[in-house]
Write a structure and sequence with these properties.
43% strand, 361 residues, 24 strands
């Protein structure tokens, strides 16, 4: 027997330590994890874009619809929302799957005129465990280069002279080919150079040529310009200026209509056969002149003509329908014209009479 006696409690401590080592429990019942024990890995949802795909080319100002899907690897877990970040500085959009299982989001991108623009759209999914996709799915959205419409002053052409307080009807045009497909011209914005504010705006829907009447109150020389605003709200560069000279001594000259065909005041024709009406318009001020023809059968037509200083020729064709007369009838044609100065520029009306007979052939 050993000369040193074992303490009575030593055997108990030894047995307790052996038990804790075999069961893997710590003091107080806490689980002791061995360094070789695998730790469960929590997987985040995997998300994919359904539409419009990995890349998409759009036009500026057009709304794009995005949808997504996701897979959750955690047993029993499910997707509760999709969050979209459109990459253009706008606020992220979260869509609950309880409302839309595909997380549908709509967004409009605005490009920069004359510059190709691109945006990276990212979507992530979140599940009921609060786990969010570690890596989101992306869509590359490209906005191609597009241009802005430039306005052109159609009337007047060259230097315009008016008297103070005399009204003049300005007209314009634009190159539709300069606009991106699907974009339209919305309005003309006029700057008369005389301090008129706000700048007058004429809707294209109301007047395709942007016609607007303006009066200059004081004598002087003014530079008139026009710009075109498109359906996206972008305004193009202003046109080259048109010079307007306001002179108190200026006197407007009314346009003159000279009919060349039919050569006689009264002529004959048949139904279903073409007749020709030809005339010239001359304006001593070179103003644009608008003519209106009434054919005597209820049909009318009108058009604005420029470059009238030396005279502008007009030739028109017309057919009187068989229903106009069963035998014969007179068609009294009237030709009216006015320049861009309103009532002060009304031409003397010209007329022609055509005796129309029913065509039996």
């Amino acid at each position: 027997m050993s000369s040193r006696l074992r303490a009575p409690w030593a055997s108990f401590v030894w047995v307790l330590l052996l038990f804790l080592g075999l069961t893997g429990c710590g003091i107080g019942g806490e689980k002791v994890v061995n360094s070789s024990t695998p730790i469960p890995v929590v997987n985040t949802p995997t998300v994919a874009v359904i539409s419009p795909g990995a890349s998409f080319t759009s036009e500026s100002g057009y709304e794009i619809t995005f949808t997504a899907s996701a897979v959750d690897p955690n047993p029993g877990a499910y997707i509760t929302s999709f969050t979209w970040n459109f990459g253009d500085g706008s606020s992220p959009v979260t869509v609950l799957t309880s409302t839309d299982p595909f997380g549908t989001a709509k967004h409009t991108f605005t490009g920069t005129a004359g510059v190709a623009t691109s945006f990276t759209v990212t979507v992530k999914a979140t599940d009921n465990l609060g786990l969010t996709s570690a890596v989101g799915a992306t869509v590359a959205v490209s906005i191609p280069v597009y241009g802005l419409a430039t306005g052109t002053i159609a009337a007047p052409q060259g230097i315009l002279q008016v008297a103070p307080a005399e009204s003049y009807i300005f007209r314009a045009s634009y190159d539709a080919a300069s606009l991106l497909s699907g974009v339209t011209a919305k309005s003309y914005v006029w700057d008369f150079g005389d301090g008129t504010l706000p700048l007058p705006e004429v809707l294209v829907a109301a007047a395709a040529d942007g016609a607007i009447s303006h009066t200059f109150a004081r004598a002087g020389t003014y530079a008139v310009k026009v710009a075109v605003k498109d359906s996206l709200g972008n305004t193009g560069a202003a046109s080259d200026p048109s010079s307007v000279m306001v002179n108190a001594a200026y006197v407007n000259q009314t346009p003159v209509i000279t009919v060349t065909e039919p050569a006689t005041v009264v002529s004959s024709a048949y139904t279903s056969k073409e007749v020709t009406l030809a005339f010239s318009l001359q304006d001593g001020n070179g103003d644009a002149v608008t003519y209106t023809i009434a054919w005597g059968d209820g049909q009318t037509e009108s058009k604005s003509i420029t470059s009238t200083l030396a005279g502008a020729g007009v030739s028109l064709k017309h057919v009187y329908a068989d229903s106009f007369t069963a035998t014969s009838a007179s068609a009294n044609i009237t030709i009216d014209a006015t320049d861009n100065r309103g009532t002060t520029g009304q031409a003397v009306q010209r007329t022609r009479t055509i005796n129309v007979s029913y065509n039996q052939l």
